[in-house]
Design goal:
11 strands, 348 residues, 4-stranded antiparallel β-sheet, 10 helices, 19% strand, alpha+beta, SH3 type barrels, 5-stranded antiparallel β-sheet, 4 domains
Length: 348
Amino acid sequence: MNTTDRLKELNNLFLRKTFPLRAATVSAYFTEHFDQISYSERSLSRDLKALKEKLAERYPSLEEKDGDLIRYSKSENRFYYIRDDISAFPSFSEKELDQIASIIDFNKHLFTGGNGNGIVNKLRAITLENNLIRHEDLANWPAIELINEGDRSGSEHVKFLVDAIAGKKIIEISHKGLTASSKMKSITCLPLLIKEYNNGWYTGWYLLFQEIADTQNGLSLDKLRLFALDRMDSMRLSKTQKKLRIHPNFQPADFFKQIMGLFRSTGAAEKIVFTISENSWIKEYVNKYPIHPSQKKQTENTFELILEINQELENFFLRYSTELQVIEPLFFRKNLREKLKKALQAYQ
């Protein structure tokens, strides 16, 4: 463990308010977690001096007012930070995390699909996890496990795109499809919306845009297209900028209004009627958590949706085929039946 890593770990131990920080306990911690054989009183003194210098750099007025920001308690036989909300390295205190969560919670209208709630919950989870450090004997597994989102491929384009969307700037993008035979294409377009979506394999970002032709003057939901950001090679502002007519009621998000998932089919929205098995466990869920905002109840066990029939919707009904049964339209019911027959044959 190098010096910087050791100081960061020592700083984290200070933030664990009930950790009895002294040479013996730190030595035991480093031995258990980092296989560091020895950590002496002299080593601790050296590291405390380095931490004091870092704290003084971050909180000069506080040090000038209160003196040393690290002190020793004889009664508790431990070193401690004089305040709970300071850190030698950039980090969020519990109070700061709670403030950020509250700000996001107040501005949830800036997020779609409940993403604001998700961020708030994760910040609250961080605060809860940080509070767990008051226990001297911690379980060696996490108490909370949320979706592991990881880095988004294409995230390097987000800053540029957000600025272009806000400024209604026409851009040029280079894009390559996922298939091996796909070739790089250059497209001039007006970016409209970045959409995050979990397609079952991974969570990715997609760009909703309208391709711009020389004669293009307005926008239409029917002409919008969707590309994955991780398939974009490069992008730049177009040399040709022109003002497009945008209806005051135009909302790019309406592109997804009558579909399940991301991609629209070539057909119009259909009325889909389905029933739920009498004793199905899913009945309570469908009533409490509608499949789609268009969901309506016809009878106790029969519901209807107004949606375009796309692959995502088909996959949904196939996934829950033992619980949900499509009644109409007949062509959709027949298509699902053929898929289920094919699946059954594969298991014979």
